[in-house]
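ok trying again, last paste got cut off:
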Amino acid sequence: MFNFKTTYNGTVFYKNILTLLKGSFLAQLIPLIISPFITRLYSPKELGILALFSSISVILGSVVNGRYEQALVLVKTENEANHLTILSLFISLVVSLLLFLFFIIFTPQLLNFFNEPDLAFWIYLIPLVIFSIGTYNTLNYYELRKKHFKKISNSEIYRSTSFAAIQLSFPLIKSGIFGLLIGKLISSLIAPIYLCKTSNFKIRKVNTSLLLALAKRFIDFPKYTNFSILLNNLSINAINLLIPVLYSTQLLGLYSLMYKVLGAPFVFLGNTINQVFLEDAVRQKNELGHAYKLTKRMVIQLTFLSLVFFGTAYFIIEDLFAFVFSEDWRVSGVYAKYLIPFFMFKFIASPLTSIHTAFEKQKLSFTLQLIMFVLSMGSLLYAYINLWIFEHYLLLFSVLMSIFYIFRIAIILRISKNNMS
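nice, full thing came through this time. structure:
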C-alpha cells in the first residue's frame, strides 16, 4: 500500500516535511480541540463576524507584498535574498498604510455593504493584521530558504496557541466578540514577531540598484502570481464576504465552522507539503531537468489519503457535527456533505500548485486561477438570480470545483515533465 514514510524515509525531503508537519499538526489540532467549547461560548453570529474579519484580512494579506517572497527560493546569493526580503517587507508596509487610509475613508460604505455594524471599530485594525500576514509570509520563505523548518513549525504553534488561549479566556469576562477579534489580532502578530526575533535576517545597507533589478527580474510574481493568489482566495473566501450580504452573519458562522473542520487536513498536510515540495521540485529541475517522478508519486499518495479521509467523513460528518459541537450546529454538517467532493480533489492538487513557481509558469497559474474565479462567482451569481437556497448553491459550486481540480491535477503532472523525453 502507499506508505509515505517508507517512500521518503531517510531522505531530506521526508525529514523536512516531518518537521513542518509537527508544527502544522499542533497548530491545526489546537483550534479543533477547543472548537466544541468555542461553539458553546460564542454564538453563530459572533463566529460569523470573526469569519468576515478573517476573510477580509486573508484575501488582502495574501497579496500585500506582491508575492515577491516566493522568489526567495529561486535566487542564488544571500545578498539577493536579503534585498528580496527587504523589498517584500517594504511593499507590505506601503500597501497596508494605503489600505488603512482606504478603511478610514470608506468605513460607512463598507459597514453598510456587509450589513454588519458590529464590525465598526474592528475594521480599522484589519490593515495591521494584513501587514502581519505579509511580514510572516516573507520571513517564512526566508527561513524556508535557510531550511530552518523548526522555526517555521514553532511559529505556527505559537500563533495557534495564543489565539486559543485568548478565545477561551475572554468569555469569562463576558467579552463577546471582543475576545474573538482581539485574539485574532494578537495571534496574527505573534508568529512574525517570533520569526523576527529568531531570524538571521538583518536590514543592512540597501543597494537601490539591486533592489530595482530584483523587482524587475521577478515582476511576473506581482503581475501574475499575485493576481493568481488573489483570485484563488476570492474564489474560496468571497462567499464569506457575500453570505452576510445575501443571507446573514449567523449563517456565515455556521458555514465557517464547517469550512474550518473540512479544511483542517488540507491546511495541516497540504500547505506543509507545498512548502517543501517547492524546494525539492526546484532542486530536481536544476539537477534532472524535470520533477515528474516526484510529482507523480505525490499525486498517488495524496489521492490515497484524500479518499480515505474524505470518503469516511461523508457518511458520518452530519451526526458528528451535532454530537461534537451541539445540535445547534448540525446544519454545518449538512453543508459539509455538499462540499466534500470539492475538498477531496482540492486536497490532491493544492499542495502541488507550487510547481508553477518551480518551473516559472506564473502566467498559466494566473489563467487557471482566473478560470476558477469565474466558475466560483458564476455559480454564486447563477444561484442568486434563480433564487436558489444556500444548499443548492453549495452543490453547484462543489461539482464545478471538483471538475476544475481534476483538470488541474493533469496540468500539474504535465508541467512537471518539462519536455522530459
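cool. Residues 10 and 16 are 11 Å apart (CA to CA). Residues 1-10 have pLDDT under 50 and may be disordered.
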